[in-house]
Write a structure and sequence with these properties.
alpha/beta, globular, 15 helices, 8-stranded parallel beta sheet, 18 strands
Length: 418
């Protein structure tokens, strides 16, 4: 099957899995490694799409579950697809809704590390109601907006994501927590693998249907290109499950359709991140990109790039910005502390973001104290630029052979400031 997305490896990290490359999509190229900011509801909260382009974001990721509920995937399709709907000209990703299987079902926030000290078969957060129920065919859930009941299956997820029109989409999967037992992890992984085959079949059907539509001129020929589909590797912290899942997804082909790339998801404790990513990349083919879901902290990014991940997404930079916390070369800092009240200097000297070029810590401190909305805008611009620039620097450091120096200098400075 011909897809609008392909990957070319360009440079490699000596003796390790890390590499640089280019993913080519219908809406532009993504040079990897690359950080993909999250615009959950077709917007990075508090920031204009134009600002995201100006700060160097190469692509944005939106959430299929949220857009399905509001405004509706049919509305986004009628607008011309996700990018046109949100006024973004570059490449776009959508996730499958698989995370909501866990978050609605178990009540946990999206977090990299959870307490893995228990071995429960059925896990739910304290004082939470289960809003999602998983079976072999899919997931039934209640909307967090109005309580209405909905059904997601692999086929439904593929249909929603095709209508949303992103360049890169993900197979429907079941995300587990670190609290789930080994038995449940095995059951969930078997479901995810079965759903992956169904996603490929439906994706192939929808792509063929799209190719038969009239072109933009109204005559015969292909219409808009089909998205690239990434399978998602689960298996929590079990090496045998992770490796088996990666091998099985890499080999999977349904009616001539295979995965164009792979997501690495699931429950991972922070200290095991590099090891688990390494298990997975050992088993995945070199000629297809790997996207690590939900990662955005500097130490995690260095570990993941070194282990062979190519792209990343995370809500972290924008989420912490809205609570007055900003990334700097000395680690994360809180602008609401009293010491910022008279600091008439940028968040960070030498930062090339719009915020640091025009505003001081004292002004930002005032905005947060006054509860002005623009405070979130300005700090989000800075945080997203920090992470985008850091991963861009990693790419350059792999190319010129200075990756280890950049890692040691960056993480050493953060550690020294604690």
């Amino acid at each position: 099957m011909t897809t609008p997305s392909f990957f070319e490896v360009e440079a490699r990290l000596d003796g390790r899995a890390g590499r640089t490359g280019t993913i080519t999509t219908a809406h532009g190229a993504i040079r990897t490694p690359a950080f993909v900011p999250v615009g959950t509801k077709a917007t990075v909260k508090a920031v204009l799409p134009e600002a995201m382009a100006e700060l160097g974001a190469q692509a944005l990721l939106a959430n299929a579950y949220h857009l399905y509920l509001q405004p509706g995937d049919d509305v986004v399709e009628a607008a011309g697809g996700l990018g046109r709907f949100m006024g973004w000209d570059g490449p776009t990703f959508t996730d499958s809704g698989g995370f909501q299987v866990m978050s609605l079902g178990s009540g946990y926030r999206k977090t990299l590390s959870m307490d893995a000290s228990t071995d429960a078969a059925d896990v739910i957060a304290t004082d939470k109601d289960r809003l999602a129920h998983v079976d072999e065919e899919g997931v039934t859930f209640r909307s967090h907006l109005d309580g209405s009941t909905h059904r997601f299956t692999p086929e439904v997820s593929m249909g929603i994501q095709h209508r949303l029109g992103a360049d890169i989409i993900f197979a429907f999967d079941e995300l587990t927590t670190l609290l789930d037992s080994r038995t449940y992890q095995e059951e969930a992984l078997a479901r995810t693998q079965a759903w992956a085959a169904r996603c490929l079949a439906e994706h192939g059907r929808l792509a063929a249907e799209r190719a038969s539509r009239p072109g933009p001129s109204g005559g015969p020929g292909p219409g808009t290109p089909a998205p690239a589909l990434f399978g998602v590797v689960q298996g929590a912290q079990h090496e045998d499950l992770r490796r088996r899942a990666a091998r099985d997804l890499a080999a999977l082909e349904v009616d001539g359709t295979r995965f164009d790339g792979f997501g690495i998801g699931g429950a991972i404790e922070k200290e095991n991140l590099a090891t688990i990513v390494g298990w997975v990349t050992d088993e995945l083919p070199e000629d297809r990109p790997r996207h690590l879901l939900g990662i955005g902290e500097p130490d995690d990014l260095f570990a993941a790039v070194e282990a062979g991940a190519d792209t990343f997404d995370c809500v972290g930079p924008s989420r912490v910005a809205r609570s007055s916390r900003v990334y700097t070369a000395d680690g994360r800092e809180n602008l609401l502390v009293a010491a910022s009240r008279r600091r008439f200097e940028p968040i960070e000297d030498g930062c090339d973001c719009y915020t640091c070029a025009h505003y001081t810590r004292a002004y930002l401190h005032h905005l947060f104290k006054a509860k002005e909305y623009v405070a979130a805008t300005l700090t989000t611009i800075h945080n997203e630029r920090y992470v985008v620039r850091l991963v861009d620097r990693m790419r350059g450091a792999i190319e010129d052979g200075t990756f280890d120096d950049l890692r040691d200098e960056t993480l050493g400075r953060i550690a020294a400031s604690r």
